[in-house]
Amino acid sequence: xxxxxxxxxxxxxxxxxxxxxxxxTTREDIDTVLYEKSTIGGLAAITDMVDNYPGFPDGIQGLxxxxxxxxxxxxxGAHIDFGDVSALRDAGDHKIVTVDGAEVKAKTxxxxxxxxxxxxxxxxxxxxxxxxxxxxxxxDGAFYREKKLVVIGGGNSAVQETIFLTRFTSxxxxxxxxxxxxxxxxxxxxxxxxxxxxxxxxxxxxxTEIVTTDRQVSSVSAIxxxxxxxxxxxxxxxxxxxxxxxxxLAGSGVELDDIGLVxxxxxxxxxxxxxxxxxxxxxGSTDQIASAVGEGATAALAIREYLDRLHMIA
Amino acid sequence: xxxxxxxxxxxxxxxxxxxxxxxxTTREDIDTVLYEKSTIGGLAAITDMVDNYPGFPDGIQGLxxxxxxxxxxxxxGAHIDFGDVSALRDAGDHKIVTVDGAEVKAKTxxxxxxxxxxxxxxxxxxxxxxxxxxxxxxxDGAFYREKKLVVIGGGNSAVQETIFLTRFTSxxxxxxxxxxxxxxxxxxxxxxxxxxxxxxxxxxxxxTEIVTTDRQVSSVSAIxxxxxxxxxxxxxxxxxxxxxxxxxLAGSGVELDDIGLVxxxxxxxxxxxxxxxxxxxxxGSTDQIASAVGEGATAALAIREYLDRLHMIA
Lengths: 314, 314
Prior knowledge:
- Chain A is an alpha/beta fold.
- Chain A folds into 2 domains: 6-116 and 242-313, FAD/NAD(P)-binding domain (3-Layer(bba) Sandwich); 119-238, FAD/NAD(P)-binding domain.
- In chain A, 26% of the residues lie in helices and 30% in strands.
- In chain A, strands 1, 2, 5, 6, 7, 8 and 19 form a 7-stranded mixed sheet that branches.
- In chain A, helix 1 (16-27) runs parallel beside helix 3 (62-75), helix 1 (16-27) packs parallel to helix 7 (289-313) and helix 5 packs parallel to helix 6 (184-195).
- The longest helix of chain A has 25 residues, at 289-313.
- The two termini of chain A are 25 Å apart.
């Protein structure tokens, strides 16, 4: 590509939200390029089974769904390139994106870089991602009906998701590194499940390993108040925070919320005209593939409208 | 069902948005009933080919997609009943919905009744719905690359969609019943395409019939300034307005916008706590299946959060 050329739209990321947006823009002959730094299909591609993406009644393998989304975007002419975006700059009528050190220009930009779940970094965690080790209760909780779980974390989201998971599981061991740091109402609600014997809370408990037997997660090892302990389990949920992929927006002028997610309107517009955001990177996102895809479609229509307006003024 | 029972959630409508929401709520064991007055799957079910619903790279028949969505919602336990909802009333901790004259109660309600495209009511219109006669340029415009089209309408949306359709078509006859009533900027932009010969505007032209030859739309008959005229065409797009299905909300207290669509937050909350809205019935909706489905998922998570809060207070 000639770097002096100005594209219609650059999409940063090639997860479900950007791929859905690209289906829409390219189907309308809007020149579209996507830059992805690691996996086409994003978190969906590394999810074992997706049970709740509407349209697949019996569920679908995450990798298969990612492949379908990619194929559909490419069918209509999307260019998907591998590249690491390190900066975004607003030059008024166009935007400048730094990809692998080189500058590329576009009239509009869609930020769809997603968020990563924070990891605890113990042996067995990465190896069992999505098959025994989970980070999203809404996505994967229903796979654990009448099963035993270990939940790791002690903040608001860990407590909230533990309460949520009780609707499926027979028992939860909640491993908290130090003490619980959640709102009073959540702590009080958790206590009901502790009293019922559905949840056992282990304070000052540092997880050391997720153990597998016959390639299935079977237990979690930890140090509790200086002593080694072990918890038999069918699966592990980790809730120790979210890391939005927005470091590259430092100095861009794009407004972020307290945890670093991009603020948008309901039309997916950021505070910078011509710059949009959708999917898990968006403030208020649900971290669900269905919502990410829907927001991608919504963003694409807003991008088209913006480009049409640019064209009419010109 | 015992009518004195209070359901967790009543969804009004069983189109893509409600079905997607139901996949989420039922998968989490939230007791869910949907009331549909005509077609399960909504407008999607009566669309011939859906090309841009993400996940189906080669497109999918609308009826097939609707069937998949229904099957997926029912797999997790959604109850879909036929019934005409005529009223919604807020009783504080629960809501009362009038279905076929009988009152049913629920802690939460999702309004997902969609919108209907206004019809012109001529012979050939209903018979060719979705196969030669269309109401959504974003959905179906791309099927008419290098083809001739007739567009019917004269307001802002008719002019805007005509401009949009020029990117695909070889020529458009725009049939306007009286005169064009669109913004100056749109009229000026339209004039460019008239000057190029891509669009011909016919004022004071009343459409009388959509004519088919060998079961394909072939021409449109009209009366232009008292004289019968005919326009050869490959397809027809009608843009004479949208009719939101919200009459039953009269007196409910749910806030609507100027054209009768339901106002919501980004979390799909209406102004009444416990009442949510998603899909084409929502103010600002994109009238796209992808967005409707995404909003359904987002609404479901907000409904769960609301129910959890109710439960914690109790």
